[in-house]
Design goal:
This protein has a domain at about 1-60. By secondary structure, it is an alpha+beta fold. The chain is built from three helices and three strands, in the order E-H-E-E-H-H. The mean pLDDT is about 80.
Length: about 90
């Protein structure tokens, strides 16, 4: 099971450079452990401060989700009225 998401607030550090360095250190640790992850930079609505989010990815969960998708081609659904019209067509020869 991958670790929980890591949240780093810009305001927890003296400078933005220190916050970015801390984010990079966390990402490096996950990389060393062989844990895939994604990074996002979000902004706090109250003051615009950056929030760095590092989310480990569970590869098993992702592969299960992709296998749930049906491989059958989807057919276009028609309304009951159109189905009736299609079935009631008369072929004049």
């Amino acid at each position: 099971m991958p670790p929980a998401p890591i949240v780093l607030l810009e305001t927890d550090y003296e400078t933005i450079d220190e916050a970015i360095a801390a984010k990079d250190d966390q990402a490096a640790q996950l990389t060393e452990q062989g844990i895939p992850f994604k990074q996002q930079t979000l902004y706090r609505a109250t003051d615009g401060a950056r929030l760095f989010l590092i989310t480990p990815i569970d590869l098993e969960l992702e592969s299960n989700e992709s296998s749930r998708v049906s491989s059958k081609p989807r057919t276009r659904r028609t309304s009951p009225q159109r189905r009736r019209e299609r079935n009631q067509q008369v072929d004049y020869r």
